[in-house]
Write a structure and sequence with these properties.
Strand content: 5-15%
Distance between the termini: 36 Å
CATH topology of the largest domain: Rossmann fold
Order of helices and strands: EHEHEHEHEHEHHHE
Number of helices: 8
Shape: globular
Number of domains: 2
Strand order of the largest sheet: 3-2-1-4-5-6-7
Helix content: 40-55%
CATH architecture of the largest domain: 3-Layer(aba) Sandwich
CATH class of the largest domain: Alpha Beta
Radius of gyration: 18 Å
Amino acid sequence: MLKGKTALVTGSTSGIGLGIAEKLAAQGANIILNGFGDIEVPKAAVLAAGHAFACKVGYHGADMSKPDEIVAMFAYAQAEFGGVDILVNNAGIQHVSPIESFPPEKWDAVIAINLSSAFHTIRLAVPGMRSKNWGRIINLASAHGLVASANKSAYVAAKHGLIGLTKAVALETATTGITSNAICPGWVLTPLVQKQIDDRAAKGGITAEQAQRDLLGEKQPSLQFVTPGQLGDLAVFMCSSAGDNVRGVAWNMDGGWVAQ
């Protein structure tokens, strides 16, 4: 379905971003990975997912808090892939602290990576998408883009802002073949969340299974984690012809979190 298209997925060397990259590759898209850490394992995983289409997989290590590096990443995408057809803004960080003791530098970092980076990638991607009259912008927000939790002021503010940005871009591109939408996951079992489960188990003297159930029970009525593959399937739907008139949506995949 996506043969000949190129997808740039930020924060895609593991977790949600990698899951989405694999699903897009399985539909024939070429993939540009971005992120920190080991690149060979995720690159091999995406190549395997797109094997049937001989998909091309590239990598750029832009620090998403630095606009100049984002510009360089788009120059790389243009030179090596002919531009970006599908933009998935997934890069994100978290810091948990009460507002009165929230370090200003942590606030700035969370806003820069979780919100401002999406502004920079979108402003650079839209001209090329307009020239082709086709594009998909998918912003990974969060259930925290729709509702708040205590001690996560920067993350909640950034994710609410990301949904607002999504809607504004959807309106600006409404008469074109470009769509802009947000996906809002609930709890996803990423390495960061697994660490929270392990810490909870250790502090409470309970099993990891009980700690997991307790964590999910606080927010996610299904008591099931959302998976990166499920989020990837939703991204594929948004890239399909069925998604042509899905515009400005904040689509929560959260096991019922926001329904409460």
